[in-house]
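assembly run, all chains below
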Amino acid sequence: MSFLDYLLGTKKKSASVARERLQIILAHERAGRGGPDYLPALQQELIAVISKYVSVGQDDIKVSLERQDDYDVLEVNIVLPEGAKR
Amino acid sequence: MSFLDYLLGTKKKSASVARERLQIILAHERAGRGGPDYLPALQQELIAVISKYVSVGQDDIKVSLERQDDYDVLEVNIVLPEGAKR
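ok done. output:
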């Protein structure tokens, strides 16, 4: 199943108002223990890059970090205000 | 189902060698027709940001862009060379 199928599947249930949204997912599969955790720093930089394209307020950004087995998954969900383009 | 469950589900089938990987997914849900398509430019900048954290060669990066309904999904898969940290 492709990510798009997964996304369309999860979206159909939520009858949310049609708003422009941007979802960024960063999945880091580690090959072994240890190694620096650069996801938090990377997250800040990714949001900074995105803010160059769309004007986004801190309240529009939801961040979640999940860890399981060898995976760290960082998910950033941004609801874009109407007419948010730069 | 969370993205992590989706990811773990897809990974179990592929008995690939344990390599460090980074997967970036950018899902843009448009609220209507038109509007500039900034994903390609955003993609270049995201890869540039990531290259600041891990040394990545062009051959290690696979990019795919899918479009369906109101969604554009950009997927960047990076296999990190051993000892790739900066």
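Chain A touches chain B through 46 residues (CB under 8 Å).

Strands of chain A lie at 20-29, 61-68, 71-80.

not gonna interpret more than that til we talk
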